Structures are given as C-alpha cells and as structure tokens.
Automatic annotation (TrEMBL):
This is ABC transporter permease. One of its GO terms (cellular component) is plasma membrane. Residues 115-232 form the ABC3 transporter permease C-terminal domain. Keywords: Cell membrane, Membrane, Transmembrane, Transmembrane helix. It holds the Pfam family FtsX. Belongs to the ABC-4 integral membrane protein family. It comes from Solidesulfovibrio aerotolerans. It is found in: Cell membrane. InterPro entries: ABC3_permease_C, Macrolide_Exporter_MacB. The chain crosses the membrane at residues 40-61, 114-135, 155-188, 200-224. Its main location: membrane.
Amino acid sequence: MSQAGGTTPKAGRSDRIARQVVLPFRKSLEISLKSIQVRFFRSMITVASLVLAVAFLSFTLTGSDVAVGLLQSGEPQQRLALVDAGYDLPSLPSAAVSPADEAARLTTSPKERWIVILSLLVCTVGIVNAQLMAVTERFREIGTMKCLGALDRFILRLFLLEAGMQGLAGSLLGAVCGVLIGLLVGLVRFGWAAVTNVSLVAIGATLGLSVAVGAGLSLLGVVYPAAVAARMRPVEAMRAQE
C-alpha cells in the first residue's frame, strides 16, 4: 500500500538511506587527508619505501638518457668516454650499424632491469603489508562507519584515495631525486657534456614513467587490503578491539 505522496514505505526508506550514506567526493578526500595526518609517521615509512624504489628506477633510466645524449652528439671523444665507461660500443662508428641500433645498446642491461623489477616488487609487498596493518588498526573506525550506514564502496574509496595521495607524493619525490642523482653521476663521469647533450624530452618521459609506475604500484598494493576492509561486517569490526 502506498503512503501519502505516492511513495511506498520501502522506496521512502531506500531514499533516506541513500541520502545518509552517499557522501561527496570532497568529504571522502577530507577524511583521507585526516587519516594520513593521524598516522603520519607510519605513512612516511610506506612512502619512503616507494621513494627509494622509484628513485632507483628513474636513476637507471636517466643514466640511459645521458648515454644516449652523448652518443647522439656525434663527438668522437664522447663516444670514447662511453666505451671507457663500459658501454657495449665499438670505438669507431660503423656504417653497417645504424645510430638507432647503437642507441638501443645503451639501454639498461637485463641484469639492471631485473634489479629494478625486484626492487619494485619488494616495494609493492611492503605497501600491501603496511595497508593490512592499517586495516587492522582501524577495525573500530571501519565498524563505526559501517554502523552509521557507510557502503562498501565508500570504505574502498577511502583506502584508494589514501594510497593514491601517498603514491603520487612518493613517486614524484622519488622520480625527481632519481633524475637529479642520475644527472649528477653523469656530470661526474662525463663532465658538462652529460648535462648539455641530454634530451629534455627524454628526461620528461623518464619522470612521467617513474611517477606512473610508482603511483600504479601504490594503488595495486592497496587493492586487497581495501577489499578486506570493505567486506568487513560491522559487528566483527566492533568486536575485534573489545
């Protein structure tokens, strides 16, 4: 039977619940920022591991960018400097080998790639562990929000926002530090030519790729802990810290 106004009791109750639990994105962002501030030092530990992994990635890529810039300068002394530094290049350019093929030789070696991949994997495992600990610490908070009507997607959104902000900040800091250290090492090894011949486009691509990889790993590492928190029953969450 319909109530006055043509709304059934079930429909009216659903509308009221929707108005109670659906919060704007700005409010979710505010709650996430406050959560990071409360757990600032623990968040910094998670961010520090991401900074180191991304810095190593951007440092390796910057080293390749510096070497390619020196090779493409066409100066024989820079080519000899690369050979002396251990790069797989002949002392004199060969007409049978194109400049693009020679530049490909200056990319990271398989050993360096595996080291970078392993460091990123270790970083991801650390992020997962830190986020699982954060979920454990916030059992009562999660249970309270669910008792107040928070939906699973709202809890999931909070954790993804926190991981996204931490990942973006850590990746940006790590990428910038890695590029600066890579340029500094190139400056020490090859002189000012390492800085003057490097392509700004290549450096920009290195920064963008490093930030994207770091932020992506941060979000990937929080998916499972966020899903655990979102599926948690309010009663179980409240009872866990009694």
